[in-house]
Specification:
Layout lengths: L5 E4 L3 H12 L4 E4 L11 E4 L2 E4 L13 H8 L8 E3 L3 E5 L2 E5 L3 H11 L4 H19 L3 H11 L4 H8 L3 H7 L2 H6 L7 H10 L5 E3 L4 H13 L3 E3 L2 E9 L2 E9 L4 E5 L2 E4 L3 H6 L8 H9 L5 E9 L9 E5 L8 H4 L14 E4 L14 E9 L7 H15 L7 E7 L1 H8 L13 H10 L8 E3 L8 H23 L1
Parallel strand pairs: 1-2, 1-13, 2-9, 6-15, 13-19
Antiparallel strand pairs: 3-4, 5-8, 6-7, 10-11, 11-12, 14-17, 14-18, 15-16, 16-17
This protein binds flavin-adenine dinucleotide.
């Protein structure tokens, strides 16, 4: 069999988007995935006819000309993915509620309606975000770098409060941070701004579930001569004189096998990638930089089925204990000893069936509740399910009596499923210093024809995976053209 031009480690959304980009350029791509399924955190699972998203459900980038739309058009399969425009999130701040749209234009309107005396200042911030968003949509590295210089040393709170000295405005602008990036207002201004900008025209649900997008990308790679090797774990990246020559893999219950290739894209944890290499081949600065980096939070997620008699009022609710986003850090990650009684952590509650009835049989509903946490912060699964249900009842009173089934994912579940370090849901911790260090990481690995992509770089989330895929594929294609 022909040796693949490219081996991609990991069939998460970043590996798949990179594979699809490269396959569309005529390169032979093999994707190696340790689990049975494709998608990683952008995958799904089915229980009694209910289709759950494992992780990602709110996705930017589908607007015409934006990064996901662009790849699907290039593959000539845009019409195969139907998307549903997301309503605003209902933000609950202590006892107050406000609807927070994803789209930057609509968010601007809400802010001006509620805080008219800051109209000029609001426009200034929104103009920054819209202009950054244009740079992201165009994947214009030069302009993205200029925003990086502007924001990288600052926290998001420092940036916003220097223009609008109002805690409520900061609370609204920071609302996506915890649930969509594990970032509080004290996190990196660049990273939180990139999250807001990635939802420039709004957020979308993929009709039928996010896994449909992952599955489609894999099918398109296979159509172009590529292969998926699932249930197969990469154990080692083989090199000769700092040049990639292949990977050593292990299939469940089988012998080690070597796959020869001259180019490897690692779409998994960078720490694990580093451990797969011969340390003599890797730039010593890379190892030092890795040691300085902290891993971001994992999560507890409840997957709940509800009877058809339940009618959710809204599709998405984000709960914050107060407006004061600079003081969210203690409530960003659930700790069982801290979050008792009325002390609740920041919580995301989502009813995808409110907008997509195809996800459940017989007009039933489902609820996903997500709370960030870390290994060791929570108790055994049964105790936590009860506590999470108390929290759910507080946020959506009356819902619990309609529950028909419950499943819980813990940091350990996420870690087992994707092998991400500590079950991290968004990669690295996203503080200003970490944002600077993460940005410097990729360039310093020092192994020829080894490329890194995915959520352990400066970008994360589904949008970030598609952005990284474009950048990395362009580099690889240029190198291949240079060799011809
Ligand atoms: C609960 C939750 C909610 C989220 N919500 C959103 C959201 O609404 N919107 C959004 O944009 N993002 C969201 N995210 C984040 C988003 O899902 C991730 O950032 C993104 O999917 C990461 O993609 P990735 O390809 O970089 O990594 P992963 O999804 O982690 O994929 C890595 C893949 O590599 C495989 N792998 C690992 N090691 C090996 C090995 N040695 N050999 C072979 N295969 C290996 C894993 O099995 C996995 O399939 C959410 C995440 C979670 C967990």
């Amino acid at each position: 069999m022909k040796e693949p031009d490219i081996v991609i480690i990991g069939a998460g959304i970043a590996g798949l988007a990179t594979g699809a980009q490269l396959a569309s350029e005529g390169l032979c791509v093999w994707i190696i995935e340790q689990s049975a399924n494709v998608g990683g955190y952008a995958g799904g699972f089915e229980r009694n006819g209910y289709h759950f998203d494992i992780g990602a459900h709110h996705i930017g980038g589908f607007k015409s000309g934006d990064v996901i739309d662009r790849l699907l058009c290039k593959l000539k399969v845009r019409e195969k993915i139907e998307v549903i425009y997301s309503d605003p999130i209902q933000g609950i701040y202590g006892a107050e509620k406000i609807n927070i749209p994803f789209s930057l234009n609509k968010l601007q309107e809400v802010l001006i309606d509620n805080f008219p005396k800051y109209t000029i200042n609001i426009k200034k911030i929104m103009d920054d975000l819209k202009s950054f968003s244009t740079a992201l949509v165009q994947n214009d590295q030069h302009r993205i770098a200029s925003f990086f210089r502007m924001w990288s040393g600052k926290t998001f709170a420092e940036y916003v409060l220097s223009i609008i000295p109002n805690k409520k405005v900061l609370g609204i602008l920071s609302a996506l941070g915890p649930g969509y990036g594990g970032i509080s207002a004290n996190g990196s201004a660049f990273t939180l701004a990139s999250l807001l900008a990635s939802y420039n025209e709004g957020a979308y649900y993929v009709k039928g579930g996010t896994y449909k997008l992952s599955k489609l990308l894999m099918e398109e790679i296979e159509k172009r001569g590529g292969r998926l090797l699932n249930n197969t774990k990469v154990e080692q990246i083989l090199t000769e004189g700092s040049q990639v020559v292949g990977v050593k893999v292990k299939k469940i219950n089988a012998e080690f096998e070597t796959i020869k290739t001259k180019t490897v894209v690692s779409a998994i944890s960078i720490k694990q990638t580093y451990n797969m290499l011969n340390p003599n081949d890797v730039n010593s600065r890379f190892g030092q930089r890795l040691k300085q980096l902290d891993i971001g939070p994992s999560a507890l997620r409840l997957y709940v089925t509800l009877s058809s008699n339940y009618h959710p009022e809204v599709s998405d609710i984000s709960y914050f204990p107060s407006w004061d986003a600079e003081n969210w850090d203690n409530d960003l990650c659930y700790r069982s000893n801290l979050h008792q009684g009325k002390a609740l952590p920041i919580t995301l509650t989502c009813f995808p069936t409110k907008v997509d009835s195809t996800l459940a049989p017989d007009n039933g509903h489902m609820m996903l509740m997500t709370i960030l946490t870390r290994e060791g912060f929570y108790r055994d699964d049964r105790t936590e399910i009860n506590r999470l249900l108390e929290i759910a009842e507080f946020i959506t009173p009356g819902m619990n009596s309609y529950i028909t089934d419950i499943e819980l994912a813990t940091p350990n579940t996420f870690k087992k499923y994707t092998l991400n370090d500590e079950g991290s849901v968004f990669g690295w911790e996203r503080t200003p210093i970490q944002s600077l260090r993460t940005n410097a990481l990729k360039a310093s690995i020092g192994v020829n024809r080894l490329f890194i992509t995915g959520q352990w770089g400066p970008n994360f989330g589904v949008y970030g995976g598609f952005l990284e895929a474009e950048t990395v594929s362009e580099k690889i294609v240029n190198e291949f053209e240079g060799v011809k």
